[in-house]
Amino acid sequence: MFLSIIVPVYNEEESLAELLRQIEEVAAANGYEKEVIFVDDGSTDASWSVISQLAEANDFVRAVRFRRNFGKAAALEAGFALATGEFVMTMDADLQDDPAEIPQFLAKLAEGYDVVSGWKKVRHDPWHKVYPSRVFNRMVSRLSGVQLHDHNCGMKCSRAEVLKEITLYGERHRFIPALAGARGFKVSEVVIQHRARQFGVSKYGFTRFLKGFMDLLSVKLATTYGQRPLHILGGTAVVLLLISFLLAALVFAITTTSLPFIYWITSWLYTQESLAPETLSMAIYKVHPVLAFLVTVLFTIMEWAMNLCYYLGLMLLTGGIVAELMTAFYQQGPKQPQTNFAVKETIRADRQ
Predict the structure, then answer these.
(1) pTM > 0.70
(2) How far, in Å, are 294, 300, 303 from residue 297 at the CA level?
(3) By three-state DSSP, how is residue 8 classified?
(4) Which H or E run includes 329?
(5) What is the pLDDT of residues 36-85, one digit of tens each?
(6) Hey, which residues does 88 pair with through a beta bridge?
(7) Which of 104, 151, 243, 305 would you label with 338, given CA atoms 20 to 30 Å apart?
(8) CA distances from 278 to 132, 260, 281, 291, 299 (A)
């Protein structure tokens, strides 16, 4: 069994040596052949210096250094590109993920699963991170159909073939199980110990939930309508055009049925003169100016909504057709490699 362990690093110089020691201890106790791939995501402390020293002392350590901070998804993508193991483990560098949990991930994979995600059932985080995270996880499970308690856990283990079929960018590292599930892979989870942070501070703030929600919508659209964009854009366009036509019919109906009634009222109120209202608004104005104003506002709003739905529907329909043609075109050609990061230097990029 050959295991690739990918560790994204951002300003974690104090924890790296201890993390590697714990990984070595677990691998030795279980007889794992291993490689540890550190991805320095633009650290501003001495993380790269520590990684270089660890790589010099241990030939199973490989590393990538980014030119700047590109985010965790890019770091994992770079690690996946280097990994050569049959199984790929991801874990955070802050020692909150316990390497001693690795055997139960591999045991779960041995049951026939393709992706196993950690579940930090008891968390050592402040409440303002725990509760929004629970709400977010329920949303991800509901929209993706992959039922997990902790989609955002950094400790995951996958078969190598899974990672060849998914692409990470933005904040999509949270959705590896959802993306894998959409491709037909079997996903499960195991309860893991969540250790308190020993060094440094958390690199994630409240804004990650907003970014995560937007990426969740992106993942949902990509996995559900990625190969048939006209279904979502065209379907929405049809609804908007239908609303526009209904509003037009309503305006026409109100106008044609109200004019005779308004004419009768104005003739009854002003019997001294013969009235022949040319427009609905003028006829109403002769009854009461306030009523004329309200009716004018109502008709203006209805006309605005009608035009908005009509033109927006046409744009969505046109966009859907173009997206469908582009999807068909790119499905025919060869896939082009994508990189969402810039590498400054590497250590053992080509495994010997």
Answers:
(1) no
(2) 5, 5, 10
(3) strand
(4) helix 289-332
(5) 999 999 999 999 999 999 999 999 999 999 999 988 888 999 999 999 99
(6) 4, 158
(7) 151
(8) 60, 11, 9, 17, 17
